[in-house]
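Handoff note, outgoing to incoming analyst
You'll be picking up this chain. Sequence as last confirmed:
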Amino acid sequence: MGQFAFMIHPLDIASVTRQFPWARFIPEPVLGAILRRMPPFKISTITGIRSEFGSAHGHFIVCPVTTRQFVELPEEVTIKKVVATGRLAEKLGAGIVGLGAFNAVVGDGGNVVARELDIAVTTGNSYTVATAIEGARNAADYMGYRLEDVTLAVVGATGSIGRICSEILAPEVGEIILVGRNTATLEELRGDIQSATTTPARVATDVSVALPDADVVITVSSAVDSIIQPGDLRPGAVVCDVARPRDVSEKVAAARDDVLVIEGGIVSIPGNPELNLDFGTPAGTCMACMAETMILAMEERYENYTLGRHLTVEQIREIDQLARKHGFAVSGFRAFEKQLSDEELDGIRTRARENRVRAGLQVSS
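Most recent structure output, in case you need it:
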């Protein structure tokens, strides 16, 4: 049986108070200071992961640093906290530890952390990419779009996940818009894509300028707060939000009933899994980054897997094949921690067609 641990962290102070009700009585600045001084800890044990080819047992462990603290604190401080949490994984007997959310960002995409630990490390980004692409393709197909006809926008295009999503999907779409903060880096990526495909590519640094032109959006930024608002999206847009915290504001759910927003990277787990921790996903499912760690443990592949900022197509294909071998599968369409019903999906598709006609846009087949 494979042994693993997966490292999580509180997204914000509110998530701490939801998990620990007593914390709501502590002023936010004080609670932030307490988190900085807290040691890492195990929050749950994971059981029941099995297929005919293997099984795995693991733990969720907490690095007590919020998303905002990861951004604001000196990197040497946050790396030290992540390494300490990795040491806990070693003590728990894990052969591999996965780095979730911003734990995977510090220290050159996990490379520094991996050098400090005696067990294998992965960020889970390879399987995240595989499932994000599959989810976006499935959603576009549901809305009746042919990829060769759509304009695709990738928000966070120069990050490790955004870059490889852009490179893989660029040859399949009608046009691609690369969205990020650094124009020079975006232009470099645009040049790489233009040298490998005939698909027109352009760059943008403002989502409110870029996204109204996009039929399909994959968003994978490292923003602390939501960056996509209701007015940024064209009628009938498909948005696959892979970011944690989410890039898409919850206001979109209330204001735009003609766009399909899905959570990227949610997969079903084989066996009878018990995570013993609520992530807002349905029972028996988890995020793809977690699943990658589980898959490698089931294979007893105790080696550094997805690290750094440059992912490879070969590695993405390999982890996708291993996932299918063990029975991991992309879950249905979910938005804002809620499974979308057939009735809701049909309504979105109908309103999308109507509003695209009014806007003079190409209507799905």
